[in-house]
UniProtKB/TrEMBL annotation:
PANTHER family: BIOTIN PROTEIN LIGASE (PTHR12835), BIOTIN--PROTEIN LIGASE (PTHR12835:SF5). SUPFAM superfamilies: Class II aaRS and biotin synthetases. It is an enzyme of class 6 (ligase). This is biotin--[biotin carboxyl-carrier protein] ligase. It comes from Streptomyces albireticuli. GO terms for cellular component: cytoplasm. Pfam families: BPL_C, BPL_LplA_LipB. InterPro entries: aa-tRNA-synth_II/BPL/LPL, Biotin_CoA_COase_ligase, BPL_C, BPL_LPL_catalytic.
């Protein structure tokens, strides 16, 4: 799909006055600078998946590190475990970025990139929208709506040649009747001070650049870059009894006690064993100890 600064008819673009379209030219002016991480910013009216598009562009040699692709609407947005992500046009932020950490960062540390994106996004939303955003391991973003935790965003990282495409999806202005499932939320429902997507997108990308630059400067070391500490501090999963639904249909129940140096969630099981979990779906079974 060809990037469009003024894509679609005027009627389609402005059909929901509470949800104006993003201005690609203004975003470029605000984000692209000499020596900065971001190399291009493109906005499309609609696509299947920004991750799929950017992976394909990277594979074809048509995207450089720091490429940002934003869609006003995704028809086939993907989350972890092939889950589908859908939302009304211009109701959220749906974008992907291309990062190429090598040779500064060993490949075995690239697994920290989705966690880094989570820390950067949560930090930005707290500052720019006034919303306390927590992290659910490994890559969900949680807000509080009516006293209950609700998922308002997710992160998906995919290898593409010598780089990684990191996709971020955020529910920004979704109303209660528009939520895809009862456990979903949005920044608006969480009491955000703004649902203007332009400053929110800029804030997330600037925060992502700051964290990525520091992590890369530290050779991907999660401790030296403070990433491991920051993730643990913002992780709502730690201190809870959880069920890890592992690949192959196996389950593991235990208390989430740490995130280790490889970004894995460490569970203390009833058998007295500390078991690291590197992949799987996590279900929170009870509140964190500090919340009881």
């Amino acid at each position: 799909m060809t990037p469009a600064d003024a894509s679609g008819s005027a009627a389609n673009r402005w059909s929901d006055l509470d949800r104006p379209p993003l201005n690609a030219l203004a975003l470029r002016r605000g984000l692209l600078r000499p020596g900065g991480l971001w190399s291009s910013v493109d906005v499309v009216a609609r696509t299947g998946s920004t991750n799929s598009d950017l992976v394909a562009s990277a594979a074809a040699g048509k995207a450089a590190e720091g490429a940002v692709l934003v869609a006003e609407e995704q028809s086939a947005g993907r989350g972890r475990l092939d889950r589908v992500w859908t939302a009304p046009p211009r109701s959220g932020l749906f974008f992907s970025v291309l990062l190429t950490p090598g040779p500064d960062v060993p490949v075995e540390r690239w697994g920290w990139l989705p966690l880094l994106a989570g820390v950067a996004t949560a930090t930005a939303l707290s500052r720019a929208a006034g919303v306390d955003t927590a992290l659910k391991w490994p890559n969900d973003l949680l807000v509080t709506v009516g006293g209950a935790e609700r998922k308002t965003g997710g992160i998906l990282a995919e290898r593409s040649g010598d780089g990684v495409v990191v996709g971020i999806g955020l529910n920004v202005s979704l109303r209660a009747e528009e939520l895809p499932v009862p456990t979903a939320g949005s920044l608006a429902l969480a009491g955000a001070t703004t649902v203007d997507r332009d400053p929110l997108l800029r804030a997330v990308l600037r925060s992502l650049e700051e964290w990525y630059t520091e992590w890369r400067r530290a050779g991907g070391d999660p401790r030296a870059s403070r990433l491991q500490e920051a993730y643990a501090a913002g992780c709502a999963t730690l201190g809870r009894t959880v069920r890890a639904e592992l690949p192959g249909g196996k389950d593991l129940v235990g208390e989430a006690v740490a995130v280790d140096g490889d970004g894995r969630l460490v569970l203390a099981t009833g058998a007295g064993v500390q078991q690291p979990v590197g992949a799987g779906d996590i279900v929170h079974l009870r509140p964190a100890l500090s919340e009881e």
